[in-house]
Design goal:
- There is one protein chain.
- This protein has one domain.
- It is 81% helix and 0% strand.
- The longest helix is centred in the first third of the chain and has 13 residues.
- The protein is flat, with a radius of gyration of 9 Å.
Length: 31
């Protein structure tokens, strides 16, 4: 779980161009 959270945080940090895109990616990861 720690690894996943770290990877997710790093990914979100990189994909910070569009909040909407970031939200979509986050939802896709959860589901």
């Amino acid at each position: 779980m720690e690894s996943l959270g770290n990877k997710l945080g790093e990914y979100l940090n990189m994909e910070r161009d569009s909040p909407w895109e970031m939200y979509l990616d986050f939802v896709l990861v959860i589901t």
